Structures are given as C-alpha cells and as structure tokens.
Amino acid sequence: MTDVVIHADNLTRKFGDFTAVDGISFDVKAGEIFGFLGANGAGKTTAMRILCGLLEPTSGIARVAGFDVYKENEEIKKNIGYMSQKFSLYETLTVRENITFFGGIYGIPRKQLKEKGNALIERLGLEEHADKLVGSLPLGWKQKISFSTAILHEPKIVFLDEPTGGVDPITRRQFWDMIYEASSRGITVFVTTHYMDEAEYCDRVSIMVDGAIAALDAPAEMKKAFQAKDMNEVFLKLARGAKRGD
C-alpha cells in the first residue's frame, strides 16, 4: 500500500434519498494517470469533490496522499492540485499576477516563487504575454496556464475535471503532453473526461454508471474484455448494461 496515493473502499455519498456515489472501491498508484469516466450525472464529480476534501462522504473509507477524508481534509488540500472544469484563473489579472497569487496560496516562498514563475513562463513560451490579462488569451493557453499553476507547488496528486473541454484537437494533444511530463515527475494525475479517445492516454480508467464503478482496468485490457475496437464502444456497451465478453 506504500505506493497507493488514493484509496477508496465502499465510498458512498447520498443526498437525501438519492445516492450519487454508490459504494465505489479503487486504488490509484503514485505517478499513475487515472481516468475517471462517466456520463453527466454518473457521480464522478461528486466522487472527485470527496477526494479533494471538499465534501464529506456518507459512508465508506477514503484516504488521499495518506490523509483521511473525514478528519484530515485540510491536509489533503495542501498535498493536491486542482483544475476545475470551469476556467479557474482570474481573467482580470495578468499571467504573472495569477502565478504569483496562486503560488502564494500554496505557500511557496517569495524568492522560490519568482524563480518558479519565470521558469514556467519560459517553458510555456509566454515571455511576450506574461504581463497581459489572462482574459485576453486563447482558451488553449488559459488551460495550459491553469494546469501549470495547479502543479506549481509540486503536489503529490493533481485532480483535473474535464480539463480539455472546448479546446481544439491540437491543443488537447499538447495538454496531454503536459500531463505525461507531470506524471514522469511522479505527480499522480486523476482526470475526468468525456472524450473517449482521451481514455486511451490513461494508464487505467474507471467508468462510472449510475453512481457505481461499472468497469476498471487498463484501456487495452478493457477493450479486450468487452470485445470492443475502442473505448467509445466500451462505454456504449456499459451504458446498455453489457457484461464483459458480450
């Protein structure tokens, strides 16, 4: 269990009589790119909020970066990065001001933050745009800056909620190159997406249907088990209630 950074066991969340997350169990290993898939309303966002320490489960067990979601949610927040489905930076601040602001929230010392900020701007090729308002930049650039800012403090885990929604295919591919680079540095990536082709980029994927995990495996193994040519076909079969081998 030493290399497991996310552990969930029979994790459940109810809202009155409605069960949004229904007894899900899984582990995520350090440095893994873990895809968390499902249709709208399947429960994946609720589960992610629990794992980020933002919502207490109704029952079950969950530990993130070694911390308990019931008692140590503040410690969880210190050890993770998070990128929202909705653009999470301040559009009325410049690129440099956003980096400084979020770096300060993450507790990065001022001198180190300046060095990290300059290195980030150079790595993204934004030297000429560093002092422009974020709101004036193309969506693809905004997403890259948002992701880079979310891992500026080198968290153990970064949670990405539909990070490539609305961007063009080339930018999506570039964004995934950034995810691979972060993973190579040991950062665990927990990502939700509705693009089934992006599931192919993950080490393992979990597919949720009606609040429960309907399948969990490496994409190649999942396609083989469901006799499917791609992950979109796997998803459609699961949505119809098909079993492995059907």
UniProtKB/TrEMBL annotation:
Record flagged with keyword Protease: no
Organism domain of life: Bacteria
Domain ABC transporter: 6-235
Signal sequence annotation: none
Keywords: ATP-binding, Nucleotide-binding
One annotated GO molecular function: ATP hydrolysis activity
PANTHER family named among the record's database cross-references: ABC TRANSPORTER G FAMILY MEMBER 20 ISOFORM X1, ATP-BINDING CASSETTE, SUB-FAMILY H, MEMBER 1
Record-given protein name: ABC transporter
Source species taxonomy: Bacteria, Pseudomonadati, Bacteroidota, Cytophagia, Cytophagales
